[in-house]
């Protein structure tokens, strides 16, 4: 693996980590406005994003790179004060996570490419349950 | 000897031009459809066959069970988007409007449709799952932007399977 390919991999992993950190934060906000099955789904997603964050942290550490720390708070894309806004936030978070994992797919390392594809898929599936419909090109603008 | 020298000069000129080409590259969008390595062409053709087959199966199910239209039409429309985006990556000389035999998925490529709506939805769900997996089978050899497109389409088809799946309706 060349130095430039390796630094592209690290940059893509850091971008994915940043998105996972903001998803963990965002689901904490969204979950507080949800009840019942939706709250349970938000909790599952929150746990899944924490697990992904831990995986990315380990992958960066294994490459001898310092994982970028999470921020104490993140600016939300819009105000969240109701259940429907909380669901919109969850959709927003998953769409963004799908996009950053697509960045990993661009890295010419087969293992990272497959990992990225799995990340796009997981985020797209969660986005679909929140949205109630599908996209033709998850993660692509 | 003179020919050799000429060839070296040409090579030198080509090498010198390379960084300019790279520096001038503003991404795939700016270039339209760039020339692709042979591996990409094979991968795209496989993906096009897959989409064509999926569309043929949706068409066959819709023909047999028009009541499923509300559920299936949005998914079918996205398959047509997939197919269009994949086709756009192939440089194919168009001989004319009649000369696109691969363009029309026919019912004959779909096979028999299961007899009940539930079985038909299961049939399409299995088709989506299989296509989502197959799209990633060879994407390791694809160029970066094609690999991204395949990963995105594969994820889309996994979400189609979710929508078609049992227990999805709350």
H/E series of chain A, N to C? HHHH
* Relative helix content of chain A: over 70%
Helix content of chain B: 55-70%
User: Radius of gyration of chain B over alpha carbons?
Assistant: 21 Å
Instruction: Please identify the oligomeric state.
Output: heterodimer
Sequence stretches where pLDDT stays below 50 over 5 or more residues of chain B: 5-34
Tally of separate helices of chain A = 4
**What is the radius of gyration of chain A?**
15 Å
Arithmetic mean of pLDDT of chain A: 96
- What is the element string of chain B, with H for helices and E for strands? HHHHHH
How far apart are the termini of chain A?
Answer: 29 Å
The global form of chain A is globular
- N-end to C-end Cα span of chain B: 79 Å
Q: Tell me, rounded to a whole number, the average pLDDT of chain B.
A: 78
Strand content of chain A: under 5%
The largest sheet of chain A is: none
* Total of DSSP H or I helical runs spanning 4+ residues of chain B: 6
Can you describe what's shown?
- The complex is a heterodimer of chains A (141) and B (170).
- With 141 residues, chain A is an all-alpha fold.
- Chain A contains four helices and no strands.
- The longest helix of chain B is centred in the first third of the chain and has 27 residues, at 38-64.
- Chain B has helices spanning 2-24, 28-31, 38-64, 69-87, 117-135, 144-164.
- Chain B is 66% helix and 0% strand.
- The A-B interface holds A 37, 98, 102, 105-108, 110, 113-114, 116-117, 120-121, 123-125, 127-129, 133-140 and B 74-75, 77-78, 81-82, 85, 132, 136, 139-140, 144-145, 147-149, 151-156, 158-160, 162-163, 170.
